[in-house]
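Need the bound structure for GBH, inputs here:
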Amino acid sequence: MFLWGTATAAYQIEGAAKDDGRGASIWDTFTHEPGRTRDGHTGDVACDHYHRWPEDVALMADLGVNAYRFSISWPRVLPLGTGRVEPKGLDFYDRLVDGLLAAGIAPVPTLFHWDLPQALQDVGGWMNRDISYHFAEYAAIVAERLADRVPMWITLNEPFVHMAFGYGMGVHAPGQALLFDALPVAHHQLLGHGLAVQALRAAGARQVLITNNCTPVWPASGSAEDLAAADAYDTLHNRLFNDPILLGEYPDLKAIGALDDVVRDGDLAVISAPLDGLGINYYNPTRIGAPADDGLPFTDLGITGYPTTAFGWPVVPDGLRELLTGLRTRYGAALPPVYVTENGCSQEDVPGPDGTIDDQGRIAFLDGHIRAVEQAAAEGVDVRGYFVWSLLDNFEWAEGYHQRFGLVHVDFDTLRRTPKASYAWLRERLTELRNP
Ligand code: GBH
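Answer from helper R.:
Posting the output first, comments after.
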């Protein structure tokens, strides 16, 4: 059965930051530091999904999706990241899973969507190899509680973005600007993924995936300099995270650094344990040219000539087809079934005088990208799911509440939910897809 779903993440929607024994995560710390997020927004309350989840599950049931990708907050389950378990944290996800199943929606939890327990950051975060083992400990605890009912698990969300934005550039938590010295964060996340796969399987997990965000890389020209720069970028953004998992080896890293002192014997065997699928998050392609004089081995030139989202990201639906068919070409038989675990766009979304939100731009975006998935399938890619980012307008990281990605509008003063026109459109489209 093809999975049609929506996606969210714990810190972006739950709020209830101090409820029921939840520990602090790096995002609590980061958002409470001055100047880190736009207008100082935090996820303290967010969509208050922690208390309003039954309403959100009802919205999904009414929408007609058959799957829901959410993330589990590590510090709700282990307030200090390791050691003491907080039963009330586990109870919350237990109730959510049961509520989803009762509504006919498959729960697809992601174990790590960037909210590392602060106590683990205090000992170096993902720069410290020990964190990989703590992640597996956490995975085992969650799976022992939920694996009897959860059909599909995702270990990590977008390890590239967590490394690059969180440790490379410092625009996300933990706010470190190590540039290419952040490379160990890639390996330790990947090792944590592999160890978590073992822990999940041991606890009886059925299907296990990882979600990588991938981008088709467009060289600015056919010149040798542009092609080499595009290759370096493709290595950093895509292959650094896909190759070890699917092929059991790192790509040639010399353009971006080295992991020789970080990778130990046996690590790649752990990292490349077979998966039941690969989660792909797609937003847009990236156009890359030769290095400028800023020390980076490439220049991100931006893409012009396409419509843009409220974020300014180019809207290129065919990039999704290009990405999926490109993965199949690159990895061949090593590519497991693919699930598009995030795709969506931010729009201004101002309610009209009658309170409705007529987000035609989002409808066009989703329509184009769903067609791109259909085309990729027609071209032979085994795609088995598509999840819209996002169910709700939510806390968009460094942008706070300024970027709205939801099918459902959230008024952040009243927390009232209002389905947008795109929600009604998707409900209709899902009915057609079910009864062709
Ligand atoms: C995802 O990350 C996250 O998983 C999710 O939590 C988040 O809310 C959602 O996307 C929306 O942001 O400057 O034009 O080249 C997405 C990662 C990184 C994708 C930045 C787009 C830059 C576009 N994004 N990237 S551009």
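Comments: The two ends are 15 Å apart (CA to CA). The mean pLDDT is 98.
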